[in-house]
């Protein structure tokens, strides 16, 4: 364990709480997706909302509220095109484009043409695009309902919106996701966020997650600057990089939202079938072991690299490990497991551990996922749909979320890194309609010969998604002034 060295001072009071906290003490939540119909009415609504938005310094044990905008949402609230153009291209284009489909692997059932919101039609024209994400969290149903009814009242009174979608999310007491594995253990720790006694290799430069601070390249991440003065730009801080322009991005971040259905029955049937004994009978222990090999942790959360043979049980949030010293060849935790694929830590072949860590620190995300159930769909399809509201927080969508999904999870080419030639068994297996060859296998490295599990199916379907910008509190205040006369232009 190492104490955080070389501390950075970050403006926590200006940062929305969700960036810094997972709201573990607020297990239930409701996500509202809104479309803006009247910009002036929405700016007025936002003006009253800002004081209620939970900042990273506020620790409310009962509820929390955070807000984020898509690119369409920023345009709809009145941000001028010239300023919108200063956002990074991945955010401006959004998740549902033809070439991003190839990067993210969203084919077949997962194609944006089939999404519930955030998708596209057959000509790649946007369909059901959300503008605003309002994320509400409560310590219990009563607190959540109270917050929701108050907020829905304000939304209706404003007459500025259409409610596009509403869905609940939750966190189980044992923190397990729907396949039965303890989740949300491994998170990068933001330098300067004040957390101490974390494994030193897990501390990541502030600018990998918060705009306006130095990142792992020792550079300021690409941040949306205001090049065409509008509204009250005096509310914004100057660009830390010294351009003289005001920075709408400072203390904000990007939030990747993917609604991911989990096919639990199929996942369990696959692991069961692949571990039948010679008499064709199920072997429950072998079944769990195969699933654990695919994930990289046991159901308890215990990492395979430390416990390769069996689950020590209980509940583990052990994240103090690397791979190069104890498991360079994947004999304990397979090279193709979800855990190693999404964070190879110190184990790139041909690189020293420190060099590997330097690379992986540039491709981390903070995960703030919550589970969902869809009873309405259950009624229609006669089956209960379960899944994950995947929230990935990063300062650079292309270098972080998209890189992880494309280069590490979906990449089934044998390569010189230690990732093996299999797709990520949880999120990278190509859909049946994906163009190109599809190896669809999972390899368990062992001696004397590796074991190959063939016929890997896709156990996750993308049902919706969008890229959001979660501004800092000052950025939110600035957005409320977009309709007013330009103030502070002379400060440029
Ligand atoms: C239904 C979809 C998913 C399921 C069921 C799932 C499940 C899990 C589980 C059980 C863990 C181990 C717990 C932990 O270390 O925190 C984990 C870790 C992780 N997952 Fe996922 N995950 C899903 C989607 C994704 C996606 C879409 C990404 C990113 C593109 C992702 C990235 C990660 C990362 C970065 C880690 C931590 C790896 C580490 O630092 O060692 N996951 N996931």
Q: Can you give the helix content as a percent range?
A: 10-25%
Approximately how much beta-strand content do the residues carry?
A: 15-25%
Low confidence ranges: 1-5
Q: Report the span from N to C terminus.
A: 45 Å
Work out the count of structural domains.
Answer: 2
Bound molecules: protoporphyrin IX containing FE
- Averaged pLDDT: 93
What does the overall shape look like? globular
Q: Give the C-alpha Rg.
A: 23 Å
Q: Count helical runs.
A: 14
- Overall structural class, as computed from helix and strand content, comes to alpha+beta
Query: Secondary-structure element sequence?
Result: HEHEHHHHEHEEEEEEEHHHHEEHEHEEEH
Count all strands and give the number: 16
Please give the largest β-sheet.
Answer: 5 strands, antiparallel
Topology:
Blueprint: H1 17-20, E1 28-36, H2 39-49, E2 63-69, H3 71-77, H4 81-84, H5 89-93, H6 98-104, E3 132-138, H7 141-158, E4 161-170, E5 189-190, E6 203-204, E7 225-226, E8 237-238, E9 246-247, E10 253-262, H8 264-273, H9 284-295, H10 338-342, H11 353-360, E11 366-367, E12 370-374, H12 375-381, E13 385-394, H13 398-409, E14 442-444, E15 451-453, E16 460-470, H14 473-480
Parallel strand pairs: 5-6
Antiparallel strand pairs: 1-3, 1-4, 2-3, 7-9, 8-9, 10-13, 10-16, 11-13, 12-13, 14-15
Helix pairs in contact: 2-14, 8-9
Protoporphyrin IX containing FE is lined by residues 177, 179, 181, 183-186, 260, 262, 295, 297, 338-339, 342-343, 365, 367, 388, 390, 392, 401, 404-405, 409, 426-427, 460.
